[in-house]
Amino acid sequence: MKTLRVPEATVTRLSIYSRYLERLDRNGVTTVSSGEIAEGVGVSPAQVRKDLAYFGEFGTRGVGYNVKDLMRYTKKILGLDHNWPLILVGAGNLGYALCTYKGFNSRGFKIVGVFDNDLTKIGKRINELEVLPMEKMPDVIKEHGVKIGIVATPNRAAQEVATYMVKNGIQAVLNFAPLPLNLPEHIEVRNVDLSVKLEILTFNLGFKSAQNV
Amino acid sequence: MKTLRVPEATVTRLSIYSRYLERLDRNGVTTVSSGEIAEGVGVSPAQVRKDLAYFGEFGTRGVGYNVKDLMRYTKKILGLDHNWPLILVGAGNLGYALCTYKGFNSRGFKIVGVFDNDLTKIGKRINELEVLPMEKMPDVIKEHGVKIGIVATPNRAAQEVATYMVKNGIQAVLNFAPLPLNLPEHIEVRNVDLSVKLEILTFNLGFKSAQNV
DNA sequence: CCTAGCATGTGAATTTTATAACTTAAACCG
DNA sequence: CGGTTTAAGTTATAAAATTCACATGCTAGG
């Protein structure tokens, strides 16, 4: 088996293709071409084919791709052929929003534990979950075999929380705190920075008005 | 004036450097080297210097960068030398979380209008803002000179909402709905997709365990 | 059964981005 | 005051990602 390194941009797009295919499938579309996918998600057709080529041949020449099949393949590639239990730390507004976010469930993610160290939050319910104290985390991780943790705490707590997660067996961290986490090499970390994209917008707006002078 | 095209990756990193510099400044650090910034945010020192070189010379050879100055320069470049009024549509849990998110305020963003078409939400208060019906949007945009809109609605409403924003003068859209928006060429759109990063994690976890077989 | 048309898959070319190596300038020390 | 050290800025090199262009192979129609 040749193990070509897959660019992260390709994985990102694959995730987007995958969701787009789900939408097509729901709308009853059975066949789709690279050009239509490209059009639908805003990339070039060649890009779509190149991205898929990292993982195999999924289409039929002269015809296109079977929507259901390609949807399944992409989900399989992304590891979404089974459910993923998640834990989340930080039962603030963001944590609450993430717990109730439909987009996670529909892709096979399920938050099985919510934690906080704030006594006023512990014991409250979010959906059918009760906010637990941090000490309960090890048990929850073991019970559900959780590998992925979400950090949705204030900045000051983020590093400590992430370290504690890893100490208890978490292998990958999705971090919403806008600061870099210092974790062991083998831990996968990705940051979701809510204001970076906003600052790209302001940069571009400024750039445009500069050009119009 | 030479107008070199700036890679979006550079702008993204600039935003991250900028926030890191704010943190250093709060901690009383006055001088910093490209190597220290690199270390702090997880890139290479050459990358930091190259990124800054797109915009000018900000350091002193043999010494480094003045933290306060570089912080101001980076904010200026990103267009953050003044405040930005924002509007937000979708007063659900995510919308609520974004309205109360400190990270926006601290970078000069201020949500000045929240809208929804759900009668049970209209009239409710989020901080000092009242959730308004969509029809009030044009007035709010004009009154505050709003250029940027945030879409935090369910998927089915996202396109319509974005189109309505643009019709009323919005020039840039931050979209939290995980589907591509179809808007005029001249409108800046960036998507924040909460589950893409999660799927990168699951991809990588799967890839790792495949290697261990 | 053969031909025309179409869309995939892929290798090559191009463009873009990142890294590395080098040059320049400031500051400090003897 | 000159030499040494340090780190920015810059040029050159390498790597990576994207686009292009074409050959391949499937389907449908006559």
Would you mind describing this structure in some detail?
- 2 copies of one chain form a homodimer.
- Chain A has 213 residues and is of the alpha/beta class.
- Chain A has 2 domains: 8-76, Arc Repressor Mutant, subunit A, CATH 1.10.10; 84-196, Rossmann fold (3-Layer(aba) Sandwich), CATH 3.40.50.
- The first copy, chain A, is built from 9 helices and 10 strands.
- Chain A is globular and about 60 Å long.
- The mean pLDDT of chain A is 95.
- At the A-B interface, α1, α5, α6, β10 and α9 of A face α1, α5, α6, β10 and α9 of B.
- Chain A binds a DNA duplex (30 and 30 nucleotides) through α3 and β2.
Task: Please summarize what this structure is.
Helices cover 45% and strands 19% of the residues of chain A.
The beta-strand count of chain A equals: 10
| Whole-number total of structural domains of chain A | 2
Neighbour order of strands in the largest sheet of chain A? 6-7-5-4-8-9-10
Oligomeric description of these chains: homodimer
What is the alpha-carbon Rg of chain A in Å?
20 Å
What is this structure's SSE topology?
The structure is a homodimer of 213-residue chains.
Chain A: H1 8-26, E1 31-32, H2 34-41, H3 45-53, E2 59-60, E3 64-66, H4 67-77, E4 84-89, H5 93-99, H6 102-105, E5 109-116, E6 125-126, E7 129-133, H7 137-144, E8 148-151, H8 155-167, E9 172-175, E10 188-191, H9 196-211
Parallel strand pairs in A: 4-5, 4-8, 5-7, 8-9, 9-10
Antiparallel strand pairs in A: 1-3, 2-3, 6-7
Chain A binds a DNA duplex (30 and 30 nucleotides) through helix 3 and strand 2.
